Amino acid sequence: MKIAFIGLGNMGGGMAANLVKAGHEVHAFDLSPEALARAQESGCAAFTKVGEAVQGVDAVVTMLPNGGIVRSVYTDEVIGKAPTGALFIDCSTIDLETARAVAALAHEAGYEMVDAPVSGGIAAANGGTLTFMVGGSDAVFERARAVLEPMAKAVIHAGEIGAGQVAKMCNNMLLAIHMIGTCEALALAEKAGLDPQKFYEISSKSTGYCWSLNDYTPAPGVGAASPADNDYAGGFASALMLKDLRLAMAGAGTAGASVPMGEHATRIYETFVEAGNGGKDFGAIFQTL
Ligand code: NAD
């Protein structure tokens, strides 16, 4: 297939490279010349205009920072320039309203679109082991699956358009909440006189088990290996967690859902990021306790 890939940053760079490895002809575009040069090194054809990159393609994949950019790229540069019938796949993590609005505009102009945000960080993007949560009709999902598989460990049909973004915001809100809870429990154990390693050994096999404790233990030198063992470098940046929490809070507002723990987690990450910790792994909340 001929696939245009727009947004070749930390995530998109590795994803586009995996499409090339799967034998696709990948037309790459990014505003950053460095990102574009890296994509070229991994076998993509580099373009200097979106409108040129999308000409004659079967599918357009986007991996962009936020909803405003996704909207402007599709409305100003993709819709009307890609061939009618081309499949649009937005893998960015964005707000639900924008995801639905852009898909509606694409549909009116004769294109099919899915939202397909991912779980898994840069290592999973490079390794082709992302989990995609896809919103769109059954038939369009099947078309999207063929494009996504070389980049994926799992491609899951979440439901109608927007359902991928709903799954992503709910998953990451839950992740933030159990990460903060795990940090609190580890700090309390230590302050109350229990060796945190012993707490890990007990709770990871008891009802307190969860991914944050069992697989990504946020206390240095305790439990599973994680960025905590490397001064919270690498991993999933607190600023990105805050972005996802804000999307979840906006989504909760639109849906009229009550999310008191999500609101509290958002405030905790806001304070942490405003204090200059946005680049630290999100498990670094442990340091504040
Ligand atoms: P990034 O900032 O590294 O990459 C974004 C790229 O988009 C950059 O190269 C930038 O130059 C490019 N870009 C910006 N505006 C553009 C435009 N108008 N046209 C073309 N290119 C443009 O970000 P990232 O870490 O790759 O994240 C991308 C998306 O994936 C975000 O929505 C993020 O929330 C989501 N995500 C990231 C991770 C992660 O661990 N980094 C994990 C899951 C999901």
TrEMBL record:
Pathway: Amino-acid degradation; L-valine degradation. The active site is at residue 168. It catalyses: 3-hydroxy-2-methylpropanoate + NAD(+) = 2-methyl-3-oxopropanoate + NADH + H(+). Its EC number is 1.1.1.31. GO terms for molecular function: 3-hydroxyisobutyrate dehydrogenase activity; NAD binding; NADP binding. Residues 162-287 form the 3-hydroxyisobutyrate dehydrogenase-like NAD-binding domain. PROSITE patterns: 3_HYDROXYISOBUT_DH. Keywords: Branched-chain amino acid catabolism, NAD, Oxidoreductase. Residues 2-159 form the 6-phosphogluconate dehydrogenase NADP-binding domain. GO terms for biological process: L-valine catabolic process. InterPro entries: 3-OH-isobutyrate_DH-rel_CS (IPR002204), 6-PGluconate_DH-like_C_sf (IPR008927), 6PGD_dom2 (IPR013328), 6PGDH_NADP-bd (IPR006115), HIBADH (IPR011548), HIBADH-like_NADP-bd (IPR029154), HIBADH-related (IPR015815), NAD(P)-bd_dom_sf (IPR036291). Belongs to the HIBADH-related family. This is 3-hydroxyisobutyrate dehydrogenase. It comes from Novosphingobium silvae.
